[in-house]
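Workshop exercise sheet. Pairs work together: one partner reads the sequence aloud, the other fills in the structure field after running the prediction. Swap roles for the next sheet.
Pair: D.N. / O.F.
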Amino acid sequence: MLVGLVMACVLVAWATMRAISRPPRRTYASAVARGVPGDPSELAQARTFTTWTFAGARGGRIESWDVPGDDPEGPIVVLTHGWGESRISGLVRVPALARVASRVVLWDMPGHGVTPGPSTLGAREARDLGALLACLNGPAVLYGWSMGAGVSMEAAVLHPERVRAVVTETPYRVARTPAAAVLRARGLPAGVTLSAALGVIGSRWGAGLWWRRGVTGAFDRRDVAAKLACPLLVLGAERDEVSPCADAQAIAAAGRGELVIVPGATHNGLWREAQTRAVCGNAVCEWIRGLER
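Structure field:
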């Protein structure tokens, strides 16, 4: 019985590792199936865009969308999505951000969208974002949500000369927090087997046995925020079921940033409802305009 129990735990841990390192793909086909825009030209106010690729830090080509903004004097804004999402998820944010940007760039992290490879849950993706930043013609404002929030902060620490400011939406401190929430929501175990899965992934990618280290030396996003040399805005959702508001508050305090908690919003609902979408859009646009002032 003991051998059987051990084998069962190993199998569950292996399945958990596979599930979290190979998230569901959000591609154009999935957008069509869900009845949502699949590229910038399909937004309510259609946007022209170009597509270009760059070499990822771990090899391979990564595709991005480049959308002209409405303010030629505004900054370049780079959108980085969360786990299990893709650049398609960023389209809902484009109309608001384009008002204050000269360009809005959206990309798919490895293991997401159309980019091949496994996801490292944010432990190595900052290097890929750095490769994207090297292709731009000036410092950018990085905007990331959920996993993309941590990736954006880490890229800003690694490449301070290429980053003007960082906006994080529903950030979390450690990878275990959202992973456990997602597994529990699916009725799956999130105890010892999750710890084992994260340990294997972390060891494989040189991020520390228990997922406490990242590219900058610490995976805890509060510690990463404390190293930022640029302005930081943190958007939190009052009813966030994946990334607790306490994490957003700790990250904002560590990064000496501005904190905006959106009342009544959930983790994935900030930009879905008209009321919360307006709150987020106004807060981010005013903050970016304040950078120039």
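Discussion prompt: DSSP finds ten helices and eight strands in the chain. What would you look at next?
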